[in-house]
Amino acid sequence: MQSNLISPFLFVMKIIDIVRAVTVVQEAIKRKPLGLDISFFSQYDLWIYHAVLDDRLCLTCLDNEKTPRIFGNELRAKFPYLEIIDENTINAKVHPNCRCLLTRITEWDIDTLKWFIQTAPREG
Ligand SMILES: [Zn+2]
Asked: I need a surface site. Which of 4, 44, 78, 88 has the fewest CB within 10 A?
Protein backbone atom coordinates (compact mmCIF):
# COMPACT_ATOMS: atom_id res chain seq x y z
CA MET A 1 0.00 0.00 0.00
CA GLN A 2 1.24 3.46 -0.88
CA SER A 3 1.91 5.66 2.13
CA ASN A 4 1.09 9.33 1.99
CA LEU A 5 3.77 10.09 4.57
CA ILE A 6 6.82 11.86 3.23
CA SER A 7 10.26 11.18 4.58
CA PRO A 8 11.64 13.49 7.30
CA PHE A 9 14.24 14.70 4.82
CA LEU A 10 11.62 15.72 2.26
CA PHE A 11 9.57 17.28 5.03
CA VAL A 12 12.50 19.46 6.11
CA MET A 13 13.20 20.36 2.47
CA LYS A 14 9.56 21.38 2.10
CA ILE A 15 9.76 23.63 5.18
CA ILE A 16 12.97 25.19 3.88
CA ASP A 17 11.25 25.87 0.58
CA ILE A 18 8.27 27.48 2.32
CA VAL A 19 10.54 29.64 4.48
CA ARG A 20 12.45 30.66 1.37
CA ALA A 21 9.20 31.46 -0.43
CA VAL A 22 8.00 33.61 2.44
CA THR A 23 11.35 35.44 2.51
CA VAL A 24 11.05 36.15 -1.21
CA VAL A 25 7.51 37.39 -0.68
CA GLN A 26 8.64 39.70 2.12
CA GLU A 27 11.43 41.04 -0.07
CA ALA A 28 8.97 41.55 -2.92
CA ILE A 29 6.69 43.57 -0.63
CA LYS A 30 9.61 45.78 0.42
CA ARG A 31 10.29 46.58 -3.21
CA LYS A 32 9.63 50.03 -4.53
CA PRO A 33 6.22 50.50 -6.11
CA LEU A 34 5.94 49.34 -9.70
CA GLY A 35 6.52 52.06 -12.23
CA LEU A 36 9.39 53.72 -10.40
CA ASP A 37 12.00 51.02 -10.73
CA ILE A 38 10.79 48.30 -13.06
CA SER A 39 12.99 45.26 -13.31
CA PHE A 40 12.26 42.09 -15.21
CA PHE A 41 15.18 39.82 -14.42
CA SER A 42 15.81 40.28 -10.72
CA GLN A 43 15.45 37.39 -8.30
CA TYR A 44 12.65 39.39 -6.65
CA ASP A 45 10.55 39.54 -9.81
CA LEU A 46 8.08 36.69 -9.79
CA TRP A 47 6.26 35.48 -12.86
CA ILE A 48 3.53 32.97 -13.64
CA TYR A 49 3.62 30.90 -16.82
CA HIS A 50 0.34 30.61 -18.71
CA ALA A 51 -0.03 28.20 -21.61
CA VAL A 52 -3.07 28.37 -23.83
CA LEU A 53 -4.67 25.02 -23.06
CA ASP A 54 -6.20 24.03 -26.37
CA ASP A 55 -5.51 21.48 -29.11
CA ARG A 56 -2.60 23.53 -30.45
CA LEU A 57 -0.71 23.26 -27.17
CA CYS A 58 2.65 21.54 -27.58
CA LEU A 59 4.33 19.27 -25.03
CA THR A 60 7.08 21.75 -24.19
CA CYS A 61 4.58 24.45 -23.31
CA LEU A 62 2.43 21.97 -21.40
CA ASP A 63 5.51 21.00 -19.43
CA ASN A 64 6.22 24.64 -18.57
CA GLU A 65 2.63 25.01 -17.39
CA LYS A 66 3.34 22.31 -14.78
CA THR A 67 6.05 24.45 -13.17
CA PRO A 68 4.47 27.86 -13.49
CA ARG A 69 6.48 29.79 -10.88
CA ILE A 70 9.42 31.57 -12.40
CA PHE A 71 11.82 33.96 -10.74
CA GLY A 72 13.01 36.91 -12.79
CA ASN A 73 16.61 35.74 -12.67
CA GLU A 74 15.58 32.43 -14.32
CA LEU A 75 13.77 34.03 -17.26
CA ARG A 76 16.70 34.49 -19.65
CA ALA A 77 17.89 30.89 -19.26
CA LYS A 78 14.41 29.36 -19.53
CA PHE A 79 13.08 31.59 -22.30
CA PRO A 80 16.01 32.90 -24.39
CA TYR A 81 13.64 34.23 -27.09
CA LEU A 82 11.28 35.98 -24.70
CA GLU A 83 9.68 39.23 -25.76
CA ILE A 84 8.66 41.88 -23.24
CA ILE A 85 5.13 43.08 -24.00
CA ASP A 86 4.64 45.48 -21.10
CA GLU A 87 5.83 45.85 -17.52
CA ASN A 88 3.67 42.96 -16.33
CA THR A 89 3.54 40.74 -19.41
CA ILE A 90 6.12 38.75 -21.32
CA ASN A 91 5.59 36.48 -24.34
CA ALA A 92 7.56 33.33 -23.49
CA LYS A 93 8.32 32.52 -27.18
CA VAL A 94 9.16 28.92 -26.45
CA HIS A 95 8.90 28.23 -30.20
CA PRO A 96 7.67 30.16 -33.26
CA ASN A 97 3.99 31.14 -32.85
CA CYS A 98 4.11 30.32 -29.14
CA ARG A 99 1.17 31.99 -27.41
CA CYS A 100 2.34 31.39 -23.85
CA LEU A 101 2.50 34.39 -21.58
CA LEU A 102 4.35 35.16 -18.39
CA THR A 103 2.54 37.53 -16.07
CA ARG A 104 4.12 39.31 -13.15
CA ILE A 105 2.84 38.71 -9.64
CA THR A 106 2.06 42.24 -8.50
CA GLU A 107 -0.13 41.64 -5.47
CA TRP A 108 0.51 39.33 -2.56
CA ASP A 109 -2.92 38.60 -1.27
CA ILE A 110 -3.44 35.42 0.76
CA ASP A 111 -4.58 33.39 -2.26
CA THR A 112 -1.46 34.27 -4.21
CA LEU A 113 0.70 33.37 -1.23
CA LYS A 114 -1.06 30.00 -0.82
CA TRP A 115 -0.72 29.29 -4.53
CA PHE A 116 2.95 30.22 -4.40
CA ILE A 117 3.61 27.76 -1.58
CA GLN A 118 1.44 25.00 -3.09
CA THR A 119 3.20 25.18 -6.44
CA ALA A 120 6.67 24.93 -4.94
CA PRO A 121 8.75 22.48 -6.97
CA ARG A 122 8.56 18.95 -5.56
CA GLU A 123 11.73 17.10 -4.75
CA GLY A 124 12.29 13.61 -6.01
ZN1 LIG B 1 3.84 28.09 -25.93
From this structure: 4
Q: What is the Å distance from ligand 1's center to 41 Cα? A: 20
Centre of ligand 1 from the C-alpha of residue 45, in Å: 21
Per-residue pLDDT of the chain (124 residues; tens, 9 = 90+): 555 666 777 777 777 777 777 777 667 666 655 555 678 999 889 999 999 888 888 899 999 988 889 999 999 999 999 999 999 999 999 998 899 999 999 888 888 888 888 877 776 5
- The reported pTM is 0.65
Domain segments of the chain as ranges = 8-118
Half-sphere exposure of 17 (CA within 13 A, CB side): 14
